[in-house]
Amino acid sequence: MLATYTTKPFTDRTWANYEQGKRPIPDREFVLMGLVVGATPEDAEAVGRAEAGKLLRQEIERRRAPIVSGVPKETIERLERAVQEINALPFSEKQRNAMVEVLMRKVNLMLDLDRQQVDIMRDGTP
């Protein structure tokens, strides 16, 4: 899921080292990890990461701004709301992350199917 948020993801091993406290987490990586697990800026600030919280807030706001021309604001809000609803469920973080990942796969699958349909209509081949 990290690759969803950056073109320069770090390895699973690095993530594990951060989680286990073997290495301090730089703000950039902390923000990326926060995006993956659905952390809020307040969560970051609550654990003493004020600067990371500020950066996370900026990144969340940046991502809220529609970057795809023609996508209705309502669609973006519905997707965000679905993720928030999942993150509010009384399940483990691992379960919630898996649910968000499934949701994103569904969205991407629909987009892939749409692309295939457009390709068929464009040149007659699937």
TrEMBL record:
<protein>
    <submittedName>
        <fullName>Uncharacterized protein</fullName>
    </submittedName>
</protein>
